[in-house]
Protein 1
Amino acid sequence: MQFFVDTADIAEITDLAATGMVDGVTTNPSLILKSGRDIIEVTREICAIVPGPVSAEVAATEFEAMVAEGRALAEIADNIAIKVPLTWDGLKACRVFADEGRMVNVTLCFSATQALLAAKAGAAFISPFIGRLDDIGLDGMDLIGEIRTIYDNYGFATKILAASIRTPNHVRDAAMLGADVGTMPPSVLRALAKHPLTDKGLETFLADWAKTGQTIKAAG
Ligand code: E4P
C-alpha cells in the first residue's frame, strides 16, 4: 500500500518525507486555505519535496474552465495529478486529461457506481471518502471493498486511493481490503508506528541494557 499525506503544510511534508514513507501528497481547497499559501507556490514546493504524485484540485465546476485550470496546474511539475470532482463535467475533463497523458485523481467519490465511471474516464486515482461516509452512519470500508471487486472484475488500472482517513484502523482496514493507496493527515501517519506495548517493551529493554554496563561500538 502506498502512503500519501493529506496536507499542504510544507514543514509536515518535509518532516515525514525524511522517513521514506511518503509516496505522494493530496491537497484540496480546504487544505490550501488552511496553509494560508498561494496554491501555485505551495504546490510547486510540495512537488520539489515529494517525487510521487501530488494532487492539486481544480476550483472550476464547468467543463471548459476545469480543463483550463487543470492544464495550468499540470504545468507546475511533472508529478502533478489533476484533481477533479466526481461530476459529469469532472468526468469529461478527466477523459480529456487522460487522453493527454496526464494523471487525474477523481475526488469526492461516495459510491461504487461513481468509481466505475471514474475508471471508465481514465482516472489514475479514485478517491473514496471513508471518514465522511462513517460520519453519516454508513461504513466507508464497504465502499472500498465494492470498488476493489468491480475494478478487479474488469481489470481497471485506476488506483483506489482511500481518502478521508481519520484513524490508523482506517488504514489497516483499507489495506486489508486491497486499497492501492491511503491518503492521511500527518497525525495519522505518525500514529501508525505507535503501540503502548512497544513503548513499554522498549522501556524495559533500555533499563535492562543499562544494568549490563555494556556499549555497542560503532563499526569501522
Ligand atoms: C482527499 O484527497 C481529501 O483531501 C481528504 O482525504 C478529505 O478528508 P476529510 O474528509 O478529512 O476532509
Protein 2
Amino acid sequence: TGYITLDYGFKNTGSTQSAVTFLDGEKGILKHRGYSIEELCEKSTFLEVANLLIYGNLPNKAHLASFTESIKGYQLVHENYRKILEGFPSHTHPMGILSALATTLNAFHPEALDPHRPNEQVDLSIQKLMGKLPTFTAWAYTHAKGIAHNYPKSGLGYVENFLHMMFSTKLKEYEIDPVIVRALEKLLILHADHEQNCSASTVRIVGSSNASIYASVAAGINALWGPLHGGANQGVIQMLDEIQADGGNVEKYINKAKDKDDPFRLMGFGHRVYKNFDPRAKIIKKDADAVLAKLGVSDPILDIAKKLEETALQDSYFIERKLFPNVDFYSGIILKAIGIPTLMFPVMFAMGRLPGWIAQWKEMRENKEPIGRPRQIYTGNTDLEYKPIEMRS
Ligand code: CMC
C-alpha cells in the first residue's frame, strides 16, 4: 500500500488546490478571491461577497441584481415546513433544526440528487439554499419562542428580511434600523469563508461522494455546530456571563484555561492557522464598540471581554502558544446587542458561512476531485483466534 503519512487533524496536509480564499496565518491576512476582508467589509454587501465567493468575480450591477432577485424568489419555503417544525421539541438546538431542514431540501427538490446536472441547474439549487437558509433560521427561532412564523416581505433586502422574519410579531412590525442591518451584513461577510476549515472540508468530502449540495451543506452545518468551531461564539457569551456572575474574576478563568487537568479553554481564543492575530477579530472588536455605542447599549460583558483579552495577551502561556482572540471572541457581543439569543449564534455563523461552503463544494465539483478517502495507520490486532460466545471470559 506504500508509505502513509500520519497527520492528526490534518495540521500539515493540503487536501486540495483552491482559488477561493487566501489566508496567511503569520501575517494575519484574509482575502476572498484576491480582495482583502477589510475592504469587502467596508464596501460590499453580504450578497455581493456571496456572489464573489461562489462565481469568482465581483458582480456587476446586472449580475448582482439577477442573483439577488433569484434568491429572493426562493425565500418562501413549502408550507409543510410548518408541520416539520412542529415536530421538534421547543428546546431543540437551532443548529439541529437547521441541518435537518437543509437535509429535507432533498425531499422537496429531489432534482439536486442527480450529480450530473448541468451547471445552470446547479446554480438554481445554490440560489434556493441561499434563499431558504435565512427563512429556516428565523423559523427555528419563532418555533422555539412559540410565536407565529413570518413570511419574507418582497420590498426588503436579504439581511432586512431575515431580521423581519426573526422579530416581527402579529402585534408589531420589526423596525428596520440601518445600523443593525449594516452590523449584521459585516458580521456575515466576516464569516463568509475561511478556506479548508472543519466544516468546509466536511462539505467537500461529503460532496466528493456525489452527495447532493443540500446533503453536503447539512453535513457542514453539523460540523460547524461543535464548540471548537462555530459553536465557539455561543461558548464565549456563556463564558463571559459566567465570569460576570462569578464577580468578574478574570484571572481565575485564565488560570483554569492554563490548567492542563481542567478541560476548560478560553472560548474565542486561539486558531489553527492564525498565529499572530485574526484579522476578523480586529475588525469585529472595533465594530462591537461602535455598534454598542450607536445602539446606546451598554453591556458589562464587553468590559469583561476586554479585560480577559488584555490579561491573556500579557500571559506567557498565551504568548508562547500564540493564542489570540479569534473572530468569535467579539461577534457574540454584537449579536447580543442586536437582540439575537445566544443559542442562535452558531446558526448566524452558518448563515454567514453558507456562500463559502457553496463555493468550496462547487470548486470541488468543477475540479472533478476524487472521492475523499483518508488512509490510516492500523494499530489493532491482525491475527486473533475466533472463540465461540460460551468460551469468552
Ligand atoms: N485556551 C487555552 N489553551 C488553549 C486554547 C484556548 N482557547 N487554544 C489552544 N490552547 C492550547 C492547547 O491546550 C495546546 O496547549 P499545549 O501545547 O500545552 O498542549 C496549544 O494551545 C495548542 O492548541 P491546539 O488545540 O493543539 O491547537 P489547534 O490548532 O488544534 O486548535 C482551536 C485550534 C481553535 C480549536 C483551539 O485554539 C481552541 O480550542 N480554541 C477555543 C475554541 C474556539 O475559540 N474556536 C473558534 C475558532 S475560530 C472560528 C472558527 O473558524 O471556527
